[in-house]
Amino acid sequence: MVNLVTEISRYLMLIIMVLYTILNFYVLRKNDLRWQNRVCRKQIFLVFLLQCLGYLILYLRTEDTKILAFYGFQVAFFLMYFILFKTIYPQCSRVLLSNLVFLFSLGLLMITRLDFDRAKKQFAIGVIACLITLVIPAIIRHMRFLSRWAWFYAIVGIGLLSVVWLFGSTSYGAQLTLSLGPVALQPSEFVKISFVFFTASMFQKGQSFGRAVITTAVAGAHVLILVASTDLGSGLVYFMSYLFMIYVATHKFWYFAGGLGAGAVAAVGAYHLFDHVKVRVAMWQNPFSDYEGKGYQLAQSLFAISSGGWLGLGLCQGYPGSIPLARNDFIFSAICEELGVIFAICLVLIYLGFVLQLFWVSTWMDVLFYKIVGFGLAVMLGVQVFLHIGGVTKMIPSTGITLPLISYGGSSVLSTMIIIGVIQGLHLMKQNEVEEIERRAVEPEEPEEEREGEGRFR
User: Own/partner pairs for 384-390, CB < 8 Å, 24+ apart?
Assistant: First the structure.
């Protein structure tokens, strides 16, 4: 009976995923908030249905009632969060909200499958992050002076990265975290937000060549500290994001092309300077040359993807635990093995639609500062998704980057939700401007003579 339910649920979960993916692009057809809200309600229903099937399988396979309790807490919280966010911000983007809930809930499902204790920690951090996102849009809407703090963002960003470089803990060849008692933080996840705000603030004040040089020098300092910490994955995310932001700000393609050339030279230099980069490149070229050693992780990732096939083996039917760090850097491989390549392709398309939605909000903004902020944050998420999936599928050398909202990692989840909160703030800001323009267009303007008469009467 358990095998039958597992087999049926495997196909149902795939169908739900395909439907959600279709709706994720279908909702972009019209720029009508009410119409989009109706579509998003269907998406949310699919999210809870997918969650229900997933945790049903986990319970049947483990017979652990704690999993059912954990599932119940999630359903209650996500419903409360969705209703609360809509109540506080009636004009919010339901598309972004539904995608946030979907990706985070899918990540919790996979982490529960891999490590239940860590899933509980991830959920606790996610609850805190969701509560923070209730405040972020209001800050973005009302604190218009954020565009004036360019050097504050630079000092904070470079300072935090320097502290990690000097005192941070080393993990897998890179200095990533700061330990504050029982809590371990990865500051580079949060500095990428201040990095985007710094760049936007600088170019808001002007786009001259001299300003571009100064901004590039400070941005380069961020990247160089990350390189010195051997956190090359984060350095690449910062670098690519800056190239796109400087192009959006100045509209000069030669800045972008020159940056790519400099990046290529820097990549060759990093290959010769850092031994672990040489190892990753060698394992990317042929992970089976050292299968029992340094190529084991990537080789197991490829085995997992191929064994899953198009339809997957089903939850709890594969062996994702054989992949080192499957819950972090290689969670996409675990998804491919147990949920299937079609499911994984849909996930990639959902991320693509999600990033396009972020880009759409940024192009909607009139003020250059907000346009660059939205565009830069969207590029950061897009590059992070590409580096993760490209690394685990052997498209590019592995960089150790997490998959946003899905991989285990409190700092990554918190920073990603803050980014989405910022984009929601931009959306609400523009929505209010549009409504104000429409209101003024509908209301007849009071004649000048009547206004003067009222003034004399008073």
Answer: 384/237, 385/348, 385/351, 385/355, 387/233, 387/236, 387/237, 388/329, 388/332, 389/332, 389/348
Place of tokens 């993760």: 388
Identify the helix (H) or strand (E) that includes residue 180.
strand 174-180
Instruction: Identify whether the C-beta of residue 312 lies closer than 8 Å to the C-beta of residue 338.
Output: yes
Closest by CA to 54, choosing from 122, 114, 128, is 114
21-74 pLDDT, tens digit per residue, is 999 988 877 767 777 888 888 999 999 999 999 999 999 888 889 999 999 999
Phi/psi at 404 (5° precision): -55, 130
SS3 category, 183: strand
Q: Is 148 helix (H, G, I), strand (E, B) or coil?
A: helix
Strand partners, 174: 171
Alpha helices of 251-397 — where are they, by DSSP H? 253-273, 275-285, 296-308, 331-339, 341-364, 368-392
* 3-class state of residue 292 by DSSP: coil
User: How many Cβ atoms are within 10 Å of 376's Cβ, its own excluded?
Assistant: 26
Residue with the two structure tokens 């409504």: 435
Compute the distance between CA of residue 105 and CA of residue 83 in angstroms, rounded to an integer.
Answer: 16
Cβ 202 vs Cβ 150: under 8 Å: yes
